Amino acid sequence: MKSTVTDVTRRIRDRSAKTREAYLARVEQGINRPRGSDRMGCANVAHAFAALPANDKLRIVAERAPNIGIVTAYNDMLSAHQPYEGYPALIREEAHKLGATAQVAGGTPAMCDGVTQGLPGMEMSLFSRDTIAMSTAIGLTHDVFDAALLLGICDKIVPGLLIGALHFGHLPCVFVPAGPMSSGLSNNDKAKVREQFAQGLVGRDKLLEAESAAYHGPGTCTFYGTANSNQMLLEAMGLHVPGAAFVHPHDGLRDALTREAVRTVLSITKGQRFTPIGKLVDEKVIVNAMVALLATGGSTNHLIHWVAVARAAGILIDWTDFSELSHVTPLLARVYPNGSADVNQFQAAGGPGFVIRELLKSGVMHEDVAAVAESGISAYARVPHAQGQGVAWANLPARSGDESVVRPADAPFSDSGGLKLLTGNLGRSVIKVSAVPEDRHVIEAPAIVFETQEQLLAAFKAGELERDLVAVVRFQGPRADGMPELHKLTPPLAVLQGKGFKVALVTDGRMSGASGKVPAAIHVSPEVLAGGPLGKVRTGDVIRLDAVTGTLDALVDAAEWARREVATLSAEQREINAHGLGRELFGGMRRNVLTAEEGAVTWL
């Protein structure tokens, strides 16, 4: 193991000693209770199983057969989740074959950020994660389950399901993906049309045609955003059936992998392989997820989400941990927006299995960890294929299937990972450098301050941004308006950059997992509404964003900087942020949310 990885892991373990000990004590209490149907009153048991066939009732109550709880994020608004419609029936059928039963414990909301991007609904997106965690808990609170299968893929859904499951840490759990859609219009071609539309060179008809050719069928979007980063991280944590992440929903192997998930969760439900999720997800597993994110240039959203996931298991991590791991983690994948390939090409070139194998070989991923697979994390360095009615695994080729997409650890795209921590007099923030051209890693330019993304878009359309600039978009943090993604800002800023201007974005908001070639210092913490120094910036101040040295500063005289007051959000904008499309219901979350670096957690 590389010493930095062991040092960071040790520091996390030491920092988390008290919270992790308390968490494991609660897990142990859950494990040591009698089974649900033995522990509960007769009326409770009757209600729990009233709708089940008589044979299933007999299995659970008299034969004490395992009962699997299914938590599903199915809806057909999300292309990625539409395939889940038939999964409960398939899971029940496989459970019956294996002498067990299965019940849908509950459903969780699952919103599509692609639908709400740039619209008021996006202001509920981040908070939907903790809503999903709570709804997962509500389903599992029926407390009659011996294990759980969790059906979810997209941005906030997987972190929410994982947070909820970790609060039932005594249960063995397996996550069940559904796979990406087939490749359509390339991500690069889609981005070009978006930029042409931003410049007024094509109309809405051409833009809709391009978008519909890119997003065209069931499965996840094919760029390497938050949804597909989720799947990579679950593989690296050993919470999937190995290799399940990126098999197409209609591939014959997909049903076999889902059936294998039933067999897998039952295999860890009792006996020598009993593996509750609360014990599986330890400090080393969290570090493995962080390393996998860095090695693939994954979504910046996970610098928020995985802090929250770790907290749910009593483990405390921060952006400094990510930064130090990034220094020693090789960048092994280039998938859009870090490259031109989509996730299907990534899978064909070797996919998660190739990356995990190389990370294990190079000593930046812990091998001595638990996983739902019998042979541990090394099982995730292989590739699944159909064998009869089941699944078998084969070794990957020694070489990458396409070195423009995936490379070995001894010949990486970069010696360091795709994410960096920035610090300075503007606070702490993060930047995704893996997709940014090297000649754009340092930007020094005058600031133009905006308090909404609509203001920036209006200024662009009016031709007011044709110059070197650092766009400061503030009051976008979790307390202000729920920390929406600002993905709609990418096309106009990319257009300006394409014209040769030095351009950067600095914000206390989020970009999406698709944040790309424009340098963006995001998640600036503390946010402006909480008194963060980004609120001191005035239009015309020179800002220096330096991703090489890891600094973010307003180049303002220190005495002048100290005298300045932090800007306040207008009463009118507060009212706008608080009302409409259900935003009223999330007022408590906005008031109580922790900082981005603390995971934007609302439940502590």
UniProtKB/TrEMBL annotation:
Pathway of action: Carbohydrate metabolism; Entner-Doudoroff pathway
Alphabetical GO CC annotations of the entry are:
cytosol
Relay the cofactor remark from the entry: Binds 1 [4Fe-4S] cluster.
Question: What are the UniProt keywords, alphabetically?
Answer: 4Fe-4S, Carbohydrate metabolism, Gluconate utilization, Iron, Iron-sulfur, Lyase, Metal-binding
One Gene Ontology BP term is: Entner-Doudoroff pathway through 6-phosphogluconate
Q: Which family does it belong to?
A: Belongs to the IlvD/Edd family.
Q: What is this protein called?
A: Phosphogluconate dehydratase
Q: Which organism is it from?
A: Piscinibacter terrae
